[in-house]
Amino acid sequence: MLNLLTSDQSRQADKYTIQHLSMQSIDLMERAALAFSEAFIKNYPDKMRSIAVYCGTGNNGGDGLAIARLLYRAGYRVDVKIARFSGKSSSDFDGNLARLMSQGIIFDEFRKIADLREEQASIIIDALLGTGLNKPLDGEWLTLVEWLNSLGRTVVSVDIPTGFKAEGPISKHDVTVKSELTISFQRPKINFLLPDSALCIKRFEVVDIGLDEGFIQALSTPYAILTDSSITRRLKKRKPFSHKGTFGHALIVAGGIQTMGAALLCAEACLNTGTGLTTASIPSEGLTALNIRIPEAMASLRYKNVIPADLAWEKYNAIAIGPGLGVSDESKLVLKQTLNSFRKPIVFDADAINLLASNPDLVNLVPKLSVLTPHVKEFDRLFGEHSNWWERLETGMNKAKELDCIIILKNRYSILFTPEGKCVFNPTGTPAMSSGGMGDVLTGMITSFLAQGYKPEDAAYLAVFIHGKAGQELSSQNRAYVVTAGSLLKDIPQAIGKMI
Ligand SMILES: NC(=O)C1=CN([C@@H]2O[C@H](COP(=O)(O)OP(=O)(O)OC[C@H]3O[C@@H](n4cnc5c(N)ncnc54)[C@H](O)[C@@H]3O)[C@@H](O)[C@H]2O)[C@@H](O)CC1
Ligand SMILES: Nc1ncnc2c1ncn2[C@@H]1O[C@H](COP(=O)(O)OP(=O)(O)O)[C@@H](O)[C@H]1O
Ligand SMILES: [K+]
């Protein structure tokens, strides 16, 4: 898992790296510019396209000057435009301006918007402001950014789009550069992983600029992002003499007469993730569907949506409750019965979350280390309305501690909150997965890992990462516009196999 950094911590990491490697700060800037340029050249190999690099006079602008020099040397047609709105400049900006001049590269400076010339370049590199942003853009900066956005050119931002905050709440009224691609240094900024970023970032890439990883990983921060290796390390190989009893028994309490599909998707995903035995607690009307679709699964029937009084709860290692369950009084009883009968971690999804939201007294019965998997609407129903995503991060961290549970706020980059106060982002997934039933599959996967004996936190990490990875692979291999829940769950065994 990789720690994510705030702008302050990023500055500390710069400082540490510079001291530790006995280098000059301008050398670190050169590394950053080199890493940016390599990524830029891969994305835009056509050297006939003209480039204008818009630079501020801080270190983001310094990066821009170094990038202009490197791209010029690589054979691109580069123009440099410097916004001198203040009298200040950073020393590495000054150093890079001297280097630029020594190469004979032409540059223009403007002190006010009125001095700006018409822009002909087809690509604009945005090196105006970076993580030093300390207030929303206004005055000349605001006009400049609005003008750049109005040109409709391809914009590539250095480190972060100018005007966008790396962390903290985003206001819809903040004006930022709208970039086609942002090439960011060392780590994605936390706000890149929240939906607000869609306003200004179409795509981002992260390049390694050689900051001290030991230092970064030792920083105290709640924010982290999952990686392939953090998942592989957690997956357990199957032992030669293992048998179905080794891999646990899961119970999926799900489905309604008109929503049997949710139960089927959840149960089949659970089975395909490797549980030894999977039982589905479903409405009696769904038995034929279950037997036809998943002959491997067993059924525990709910007549008139009531769980039989003699259900042997103790034989299950993990339970999922919610997909397609409905929110009727009978469904509430099903939830109540489950909460009163099973004290091991439970995975709560969909209607189980909606029922918890409308019956707060039931929340106290949620077993410790349970996993709740709300999407944003369910999250707000359960924990109250939020006016921005940063607030949801705060709530998620607080509630996970308070309830001693793992909360997964599902999204493009799903966010996992742990009882220890961590806030972990999942990088995998694709918009091709935005189709009904996908969450039911995730719930089945988490429950399966739990039943197999994984710790709840690990079960959550594994399921979310592999779920997204499977979706990503299916959409890219088959160039699929959409990946359905049914096709994703068929791919789970291979997706796990590839990671182990
Ligand atoms: N580890 C890293 O991430 C590295 C970062 N570097 C670059 O350094 C950048 C940060 O540089 P700086 O700290 O010099 O800051 P910036 O270049 O982002 O900003 C320059 C100055 O502009 C002023 N300013 C901030 N917000 C403003 C606003 N809304 N209106 C007007 N003026 C405003 C501030 O006084 C700020 O110090 C990063 O984004 C990155 O591009 C690289 O040079 C080296 C390594
Ligand atoms: N744009 C996206 N990018 C990545 N993952 C996505 C995207 N859209 C949906 N998903 C994933 O699909 C799942 C959808 O869950 P949910 O909204 O509960 O669906 P449903 O209720 O239909 O089962 C979540 O795991 C979510 O992270
Ligand atoms: K920038």
UniProtKB/TrEMBL annotation:
<keyword id="KW-0511">Multifunctional enzyme</keyword>
<keyword id="KW-0067">ATP-binding</keyword>
<feature type="binding site">
    <location>
        <position position="126"/>
    </location>
    <ligand>
        <name>K(+)</name>
    </ligand>
</feature>
<dbReference type="Pfam" id="PF01256">
    <property type="entry name" value="Carb_kinase"/>
</dbReference>
<keyword id="KW-0630">Potassium</keyword>
<feature type="binding site">
    <location>
        <position position="324"/>
    </location>
    <ligand>
        <name>(6S)-NADPHX</name>
    </ligand>
</feature>
<feature type="binding site">
    <location>
        <position position="439"/>
    </location>
    <ligand>
        <name>AMP</name>
    </ligand>
</feature>
<feature type="domain" description="YjeF C-terminal">
    <location>
        <begin position="227"/>
        <end position="499"/>
    </location>
</feature>
<dbReference type="InterPro" id="IPR036652">
    <property type="entry name" value="YjeF_N_dom_sf"/>
</dbReference>
<dbReference type="Pfam" id="PF03853">
    <property type="entry name" value="YjeF_N"/>
</dbReference>
<feature type="binding site">
    <location>
        <begin position="59"/>
        <end position="63"/>
    </location>
    <ligand>
        <name>(6S)-NADPHX</name>
    </ligand>
</feature>
<dbReference type="InterPro" id="IPR017953">
    <property type="entry name" value="Carbohydrate_kinase_pred_CS"/>
</dbReference>
<keyword id="KW-0456">Lyase</keyword>
<dbReference type="InterPro" id="IPR000631">
    <property type="entry name" value="CARKD"/>
</dbReference>
<comment type="function">
    <text>Catalyzes the epimerization of the S- and R-forms of NAD(P)HX, a damaged form of NAD(P)H that is a result of enzymatic or heat-dependent hydration. This is a prerequisite for the S-specific NAD(P)H-hydrate dehydratase to allow the repair of both epimers of NAD(P)HX.</text>
</comment>
<dbReference type="InterPro" id="IPR029056">
    <property type="entry name" value="Ribokinase-like"/>
</dbReference>
<comment type="similarity">
    <text>Belongs to the NnrE/AIBP family.</text>
</comment>
<dbReference type="InterPro" id="IPR004443">
    <property type="entry name" value="YjeF_N_dom"/>
</dbReference>
<dbReference type="InterPro" id="IPR030677">
    <property type="entry name" value="Nnr"/>
</dbReference>
<feature type="domain" description="YjeF N-terminal">
    <location>
        <begin position="10"/>
        <end position="217"/>
    </location>
</feature>
<comment type="subunit">
    <text>Homotetramer.</text>
</comment>
<keyword id="KW-0520">NAD</keyword>
<feature type="binding site">
    <location>
        <position position="162"/>
    </location>
    <ligand>
        <name>K(+)</name>
    </ligand>
</feature>
<feature type="binding site">
    <location>
        <begin position="410"/>
        <end position="414"/>
    </location>
    <ligand>
        <name>AMP</name>
    </ligand>
</feature>
<keyword id="KW-0413">Isomerase</keyword>
<comment type="similarity">
    <text>In the N-terminal section; belongs to the NnrE/AIBP family.</text>
</comment>
<keyword id="KW-0521">NADP</keyword>
<feature type="binding site">
    <location>
        <begin position="130"/>
        <end position="136"/>
    </location>
    <ligand>
        <name>(6S)-NADPHX</name>
    </ligand>
</feature>
<feature type="binding site">
    <location>
        <position position="262"/>
    </location>
    <ligand>
        <name>(6S)-NADPHX</name>
    </ligand>
</feature>
<keyword id="KW-0547">Nucleotide-binding</keyword>
<feature type="binding site">
    <location>
        <position position="159"/>
    </location>
    <ligand>
        <name>(6S)-NADPHX</name>
    </ligand>
</feature>
<comment type="function">
    <text>Catalyzes the dehydration of the S-form of NAD(P)HX at the expense of ADP, which is converted to AMP. Together with NAD(P)HX epimerase, which catalyzes the epimerization of the S- and R-forms, the enzyme allows the repair of both epimers of NAD(P)HX, a damaged form of NAD(P)H that is a result of enzymatic or heat-dependent hydration.</text>
</comment>
<protein>
    <recommendedName>
        <fullName>Bifunctional NAD(P)H-hydrate repair enzyme</fullName>
        <ecNumber>4.2.1.136</ecNumber>
        <ecNumber>5.1.99.6</ecNumber>
    </recommendedName>
</protein>
<feature type="binding site">
    <location>
        <position position="375"/>
    </location>
    <ligand>
        <name>(6S)-NADPHX</name>
    </ligand>
</feature>
<feature type="binding site">
    <location>
        <position position="440"/>
    </location>
    <ligand>
        <name>(6S)-NADPHX</name>
    </ligand>
</feature>
<feature type="binding site">
    <location>
        <position position="60"/>
    </location>
    <ligand>
        <name>K(+)</name>
    </ligand>
</feature>
<keyword id="KW-0479">Metal-binding</keyword>
